[in-house]
Here is the input.
Amino acid sequence: MKDKLDNWITDIRRRWSDAPGSDWSKRWLALPLIVLLVFLLALGFFWSSEPDAFDIVTAAADRASATDSVITTGSYTTATVIKTMETLLDKRGGYLSNDVLPPSIWLDNIPNWEYGVLVQARDITRSMRNDFSRSQSQSTEDKDLIIAEPKLNFDHESWIFPATENIYQEGIDALYGYLTRLQNPANPDAQFYARADNLKDWLSQVEKRLGSLSQRLAASVGETRFNTDLAGESDAVQSTKTSAQVSVKTPWHEIDDIFYEARGASWALIHYLKAVELDFESTLKKKNAQVSLRQIIRELEGTQQPLWSPMIMNGSGFGLFANHSLVMASYISRANAAVIDLRNLLEQG
Here is the structure.
């Protein structure tokens, strides 16, 4: 038995040796590296899962309960913006876009998802500062939103001096300050004006973002488009002349980046639109526009369906393989059309 064991060990040593006479024990030095690599790959896979949706009513109620205050107009929207930003910082793996070490440096899906969420948070925070919190164009800006809006527009890839997470946390703290004053009926200093024109202005930004995302997603297969930059106005001019037709195609290595950016943007918009439905309830009822808003949410919820493929497929439109970008573009385009319809309803008297 001992002879068989010795022979087996000798055979293992021979197989692991590069050449006769090499030190077999040095081969075991590779084992910790292999284990580390497997661990990092597993950790990266674990971090690459997208966060679940959260309940906006609970988000607003929790803050009101913590500060012994009440739910007021604007509470849902503000609390939802705070919750989406906290999700970026506190989800699995934390905030990944500015990481410079493995496994984060190998990941790009979740960082692009983060950027999609961040763009929507920046847009609605800008609307809160410029429109929602101000009664007229000559009114003063809210003191906390003056801080929050530029903080959220800080470089999303800065990893040190200062770290992005620290700056975003300062913006979140400023939003908490605004929400605390907003939910205090005895303090009329903080306001949120749920007017149709304010909502219309924010939806105009949403419309442009969704339109851009749908075009970038559709370009995954490449297409030639007519240049419509000056369409609709005979006297319109532009800085330099461009071709009558433009060829557009997304580079193959950016297809999954755009897909996950659109997925993150849609995730954030679903929450913001649900919050807006509550804060602008009376305005939407007056315009009979609640169903239109819910249709936008319904279309965007289609973008959040589970992705069963291990990679983003880029088949041709009617080819043998799927094209996930075109499916995503379909949902976003329909949502964008519904946003345009809602804006038209809000413009009517």
About this structure: The CA atoms of residues 50 and 337 lie 26 Å apart.
